[in-house]
Each structure stands twice: as structure tokens, then as C-alpha cells.
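Hi there,

I know you've been waiting on this one. I reran it after we fixed the sequence typo, so this is the corrected version. Both the input and the resulting structure follow.
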Amino acid sequence: MANFLTSSIGKKFIQSVSGAFLVIFLLLHGTINFFSVIDSLQGRFGKVMPDEFPYTHGDGWFQLGCDFMSSPLIKIMVPILALGFIIHILYGIWLSWENVKKRGGLKRYEVASKAKNDSWSAKNMAVLGILILGLLGFHLTHFWAKMQLQEFMGAEAENPYYLLIATFKNWWVVALYIVWFIALFLHLEHGFWSMFQTIGWSNKKWQKRLKVIGIIVAAFIVLLFVATAINAWVEGNCVTASAQWTEALLSKF
């Protein structure tokens, strides 16, 4: 078992499995975030009932989604997710370094590369990973630190609608997040089909199909997040009916 985990195939397998777990989480997370857009379309953005109970009738869809993310099941999954993410990063760095050595070390560009036909995403997965990791820390300080972390510490989580407005009220923050989402798309669209190839669920017939499916899945996830960010900016800056409410909530930050 130890030999398998340290072998090239074993490391790629672990990288693929941890990546699949993260794709599922991103689908869930992105869908719940998109509930805030649905709330806006229904005129329910910011609807939170004045009680401390989850799943209260009258709460907006986004609040109900955040209640689910605070459920015991998700709280158990958070450490597992964090461990999977750490493993994905460490094995990604390991695999990238081994690829550098196999291609001639720091002088790899002076020799012919077997990966000359690879996409830009495939050749720069490590760079994309570092960019995603850096902006992830930025993201965690905006939301996780003020919601789930607060609950873990026994404190009350911030209103999720408040956090959306406070985070995306400035256009440059929205732009920075969109750069992050683009990097995430490029990372996911290559990682998706590569995952199936690594575990042996791909062949010449299915490789092109999996690449297309990977683009669709990555685009769907990223569009959920982009729509959430832009909608929050619109709510915070352009929705006249909520101007007083917005001003009041921003005074909290």
C-alpha cells in the first residue's frame, strides 16, 4: 500500500480522487450561493426571520442554504474537505516537481517536450493551483471566518446577505473574484477529464467527450459563482428599493 501511494500512478490516483471530492463540493457550494440570485429574482434578497432557528418559514433561499451548510453533517465534512484539499495541494506540488525533473529540470524548455500538444491549462496546472490557493485565503476571510468559524467557536454567524453585500460592494473585489473564477475554470476543465483518464475510465473514443463534459461542468460551476458575485454587486449598488437596508447593513463592517 505504501509503495502504491508513493508511486507515480498512486499519487495521480489520490490527486484524482481528492479532486473529484472538491468538484462535488464546488457544485454544492456554487448552487447554494446561486440561491441568492433566485432570491433577488423573487424579491426575497435579505429575507431572514428574527429567530435563531434553522429552516424557518419566510427565510430566503440563500439563508436556507446557509442553514444546511451549518448542519451537523456539513460540520463533520468540513475537516474532511480541508484534509482532502491539503492532500490535493501537496500531491499537486509533488507531481508538478516530478514533471519538471522528467522534462529536464529548470532547463526543460530547451529540450523537446512530450507534452507539446497539451493545452495551456495542462501545462500550467501548478500555476493555476497557486493562484487559486492564494485567492482562497482572501475568500475564507470574507465568508468562512465570519460564518462557520464563528459557529465552531460558539458565536453567532453573520447574516449571509450582509456578507455578500459587504464583500462585493466594490467593483474591484468583483473583478478580483472573477479572475479567481477564470483560474478555477481552467484548472477544473483540465482536471475533470484527466481524473477519468487517471483512474482508467477513459479511452480514445471517450477522451474527447470527457473534455467537452469537463468544459461544461467547469463552466457551470464558475457561472454559478460569477452570477452570485455580480448579483451581490447589483444588490449593493443599483437596487434602489434596498438602498436604506444596504446602508444599514454596511455600517456593521
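Quick highlight: Confidence is low (pLDDT under 50) at residues 106-115.

Best,
R. S.
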